[in-house]
């Protein structure tokens, strides 16, 4: 299997180039669907059947199973969208410099899509029935929080025993064993305008009220326990000599444990239910979005299996935690043993300098294929 995958590295790069050179930002539906069509055809040739979940705003989501699959126990998550707007490919298309490939979405996660495809190809080439034990979800809105695919992921997670998420490995090659959960809120403060020189006493400053709220919200931060509340963007007022009648803030919340999210939701609502400046009013919008992917025993158990596979094939598998969100949080929250970061190694995701370490394509493809095979061999124990 290892020899087969290595021989296919150049072929993998050609497909990566083809996918990278398609603008497929989350809101570029046509481009995302084009990526989906290419992958559907590739998997069709391998005997996979695709169920399409149509979307109007985002690209269509795809659920793929081998035609002989009956009750797969492994769910594999990958996304087809990127963060880059339409026109980015024209500015900086796919290119290779030395051992690295560059381009919009090259590692997050066009290369992961190809690693997944070729892991399946290698299993089929070597007659492995383990391909019948996987269900693959390719979604199209991960980069904007998976608003339309979250329910699909949660529904398809039912009855699964293992979840493998294809976000790229970290720069040092580490897999992702835990992810922080996240929430997004907006505070709208309404006051009363007045001239700050002529009749300031008649005004009710929305900006002043927002300032109180920012301090109260930031006081909820507890870095030692993995909680952060950050007001990252504010706006308000109409002129320097006018008491502001409106102000607004965007709030980012990060948590490490599910219970922290419940607590913070309650506290944020409490803070915004009262005002310090008489005559002002507050409207709160938003919620906790992705739950955390906790580093619990079932996830650690799956990680140990993957580390064992890595040892057998000569790949040193380590793991880390990250503050960023991902779809792995949804499978983990439903009780499915989950490990993320099974894509190839790279870095600078979401930036102009995003890159893929080309040498890691064959090793990560082999690691994924062998992991699928190992987990499938355990299927009879998990019925």
Automatic annotation (TrEMBL):
Transmembrane segments: none
UniProt KW Protein transport keyword: no
GO molecular function terms noted in the UniProt entry: carboxypeptidase activity; metal ion binding
Keyword Repressor found: no
Gene3D superfamilies in the record: 3.30.70.360, Zn peptidases (3.40.630.10)
Active-site feature positions: 81, 142 (proton acceptor)
Keywords: Carboxypeptidase, Hydrolase, Metal-binding, Protease
Peptidase M20 dimerisation domain ranges (all copies): 178-277
UniProt cross-references to PANTHER family, sorted A to Z: ACETYLORNITHINE DEACETYLASE, BLL0789 PROTEIN
Protein known as: Carboxypeptidase
